[in-house]
Each structure stands twice: as structure tokens, then as C-alpha cells.
Design brief:
Order of helices and strands: HHHHHHHHEEHHHHHHHH
Distance between the termini: 30 Å
Largest sheet: 2 strands, antiparallel
Radius of gyration: 22 Å
Number of strands: 2
Structural class: mainly alpha
Shape: globular
Strand order of the largest sheet: 1-2
Amino acid sequence: MADLSCIRSGQPLSLRRQAALTATLAIPAILAQLSNIIMFYIDASMVGRIGVNGAAAVGLMNSSLWLFWGVCASVTTGFSVQVAHRLGASDPAGARNVMRQGITSCLVVGLTIAAIGIAIGGQLPHWLGGRDEICADASIYFMIYTGALPLLTMNYLASGTLRAAGNMKVPALLNVAMCLMDVVFNWFLIFPTREIDLWGTTVTMPGCGWGVTGAAIGTAGAEVITALLTMYWMLCRQPDLHLRRPERGSFRPVKAVLQRATKIATPMTLEHAVFCGAQIMITIIVAPLGSVAIAANAFAVTAESLCYMPGFGIGDAATTLTGQSYGAGRLDLVERFCHLAVFLGVGVMTIMGIALYITAPWMMDLLTDVEAISTLGTEVLRIEAWAEPLYAASIVAYGAFVGVGDTLLPAIMNFGSIWAVRIPLAAILAPGMGLRGVWIAMAVELCFRGAIFLWRMYSRRWIPRS
């Protein structure tokens, strides 16, 4: 766990020490984000082996699942940011009170969102323009995932709260464990009983043969187990947060904490809802292009995620650093940590973009053995690779802004960019250029978004002065 006491105590920090602290927090956060996307990569790769329709069913629902997951994750941020502020102000008892209230509030939100998802799951694939042959699998896949949302929301809250306390390692390790569980569960649930050649010996591997349904059950099961372990660590093991203390505390939310959480989380939640609504619009634009385009789009999004998830990990570190610095009243450190994190994020994602351009064919081949899907996915990935550096700037700067509670204008910038640039451009280019036109629109929009976030960062207006 990173030692953030130097921020709270008011010690002077050299540039070298600031950079070291940023890297210390960022590396495990990057690993945590990578493990999350590797899990999706595993799912996509395994489902891709059962045919075009199975892959299309999963691909059709991904944007809707991101909407539901993202709303739950945004709500938890309203509490984890307050925990960072309280710990930065050397008020661990106050941080524990916020944590207790966050558990109750976020559990209610998770249950509500899950109920909505299950209620609409049967019709949603049809609303998205899915063809009859994939809608049944798509509905089951969506409803199983949304049914696990209450515990997944607790995982978001516990992971965010641990990161707010400077503990990046435990969430990272548990996410790696989640990936391993996902592989094992999917291996037995997706495929039927089959014979494989193992070092020259034929071995019979048992399996359920549940296909898309098995993929959903396997991943949801891994996520639920991880959520329980993360909650245990936060409540029973984490210094400054664990509840094994002789103090009275209530899990009943109070007005002041809820108001602050609402102020932080509402713009993020609305921004994510509108952003994912735009992603759903992209799905609707892609759906008429056929099952190959739907599958190639979904697999390419998964493959590209390996590039940008390190940016989200560094953004998580930036949230912790700016949040605790702001809570400690050290506004000079707030700005420096933001600049360092953005510089690191742009550097890492530039390297990842180059790697994406070179390895795109192999990444797609790992996801599917359908040549048409692999070829189309490779082409669009190489279009997107050019946008990775500026995409990094927007991701990491946004994380730094969240740490000080500045979420309204960045949220407007995010969803304004995608609705004003990406959607109109994709609608114009898709009829003539197909999926390639959709991804050109995406790359142009990401570059535009990165530029406006850099402008916001250098304006310094995002740092509250009172």
C-alpha cells in the first residue's frame, strides 16, 4: 500500500518523490484495469469459438451492459471521493462513516438497476435492432449479468474506497484472481464435453455446453466471488477503514453525506448514461451492417480496451492523489500530480497504440477464427490506434478532476464531444464506408476530446479555491 502520509502531514515533496508516488499508485491500478479487460477478452475469445451468432449476441449487448455497470460505478465514486478527502484531512473516523453510508446507498442503487435490467432484458435486443437468431441468447446474457449488479456495485465501492485509502495492490490482485476464476468457469460452462490432445495424450474434458449462457454465468460468478473478498478486505483488514474498532457508527445515510455524494456522482452518472446512450446509438448504426460487422465491432472494442485500460488505471491513481492532496489543503500538489499523471498516461498509451497497430491481426485471431470478422476488426483497430495518445489525456485528466470533486463541466465535455462529433459523423460515414466509417468517426472524436481536456487542465479552473 502506498504511503500517503507525506501528503497529509504537509511534508515538502520533491518532483522526483511526486513522480515515484504517482508511479507507485499507478502500476497496480493499471494491472487492475488490465485484468478487468483481460476477463472480457477471455469471454469474447471463448464465445467467438462457438460461431458468428454467439459472438454477435454478446456484441449486441455490450454497450447496454456498460451503461448499467457504469451508472453503478459512478454512484460509488460519490462516496469513495469523500473517503479520500476525509483521509487526506486526517479524519479516519469520518472516512469510516462515509464508507458505512456508501454501502447502504450503493446497495439500494444496485438492486434498483438490476431490477430494471431484468424487467427490460427480454425486449432489449429487439429494440437494438438485433436479428431474431441472436435475440434469445442476447436476452439471457444480459439478464444474468444485470442480476449480479448488486454485488458488482459493492465491488466497485470497495475497490474505489481501498484505492482512495492508497491501497492499489489488493484490488489489483483480486481482479487477477477474478480473471483466473473466469477462465476456469467459462472453460467448463461454455463448451460441451470434448476430447483434447494434451502432450500426445487424448483427454476428455467435461463441459456443460451452455454457450453464451455459460459465458454469462461464468463471468458473473467470478465477479460475485471477487466482490465478497474485496468487501471483506475493506471492512475487516484495511487500516483506517476496518470496522473492528470500539466506535459507534450507523449505516443509515445522512443528508450532508448524501448531498455531497450526489453533487459528485450525479454529473458522472448522467455523463455515463448519455455516453453509453451514444454507444447504444453506435450499436444501432452498426446493427444493419450485419452479424459480421456487429461481431467485428464488439471484438475490436474488446481488443482496443487493452490499450486504453492502462489510462483508466492511471486515472484512478490521479483521483487518489488529487483527492488526498485536496483534502489536506495542498492545492500546489493537486496540480502537480495531475500533470504528472497525464504525462504518464499519454506516454503509456502512445506505446500501447503503436503495439495495437502492429499486433492487431494477432489480437483479432485470438478472438475469432472467422476470417471475415478478423480482417474487418484488424482494419478498424489500426484506425483507432492513432487516437490513443489524446484519448489518454482525456481519461487521466478526468480522473484528476474527479479527485477534487470537479465533475459537472468534465461530464458535459465528455458527452457533448461524443454526441456532437462521434454520432453525427458515424451516421454520415457508415452508409458508404461501413464499420470503417464508424471507427474513423470514433478516432476523430477521441482526438477532439483529448484536446479540450488538455485545455481544461491548463486553465486551472478545475481546482476549487475555497
